[in-house]
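Rotation project, supervised by the postdoc (A.L.). Task for the rotation student: set up a whole-complex structure prediction and record inputs and outputs verbatim in this book. Inputs entered:
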Amino acid sequence: MVTVDAIGPVRVLGGADASSLRFDATRTVHAAMVALDAATLAPIGSAGASRSGGLPYIPGLLGFREVPVLARAFAQLPVKPDLILVDGHGMAHPKGLGVASHLGVVLDVPTIGVAKSVLCGAVEGDFPDTPGTRAPLVWKGAVIGMALRTRRGANPLYVSVGHRVSLGTALAWVERTLRGRRLPEPTRLAHEAAARVRLAAMAAAG
DNA sequence: GCGACAG
DNA sequence: ATCTTGTCGC
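Outputs recorded:
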């Protein structure tokens, strides 16, 4: 895992997320990877994949559950992203390698962790409910990520280094793709796409 | 030993 | 993670 910028020009942005059923004995996970024009944020490609028989959800082991399917979705993508925003933590993980970093290393593509809640650590310092406000996510004396207020009255986002991207660059990309919403566009579209992959797979199976 | 716990 | 109408607030 590389925690500094090792990234070329970003023309295509990627978004990655998975969708699954709350109670599912087959442990099927559906994943989607979307591609957007980095300049306009217009969607330019999408791919999905499903896989059963993987791990159940275990905090700390999310990557082992989602990365295999996400990697398959990536392989199906006609346009390969230069940078991928992943739903979940990157370095802000007990072992320092969350799903975002895990995916980045497996694909060897720059990634950013965009999580909606904390796995480990705590937000430090003042953190008023004003869009644009940041506060460090600290764990065992080290800054492992940044809490980001993206919308008033909404829970913050937790951005962390995934792979080959510094925290500063990660924050810049997240803020640049918000479009006034709580979640950045790549992750938001990936979430919707993953849900559609799941619904389509379920409809096909009956 | 107890509590916390991405999605 | 998912289910799901109305409702509160900017």
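Student's summary: Residues 12-113+161-169+180-205 of chain A form a domain with the archaeoglobus fulgidus dsm 4304 fold fold (CATH 3.30.2170.10).
Supervisor addendum: Residues 17-20, 57-60, 62, 65-66, 87-89, 92-94, 98-100, 113, 115-120, 158 of chain A lie near DNA strand B (CB under 10 Å from a C1').
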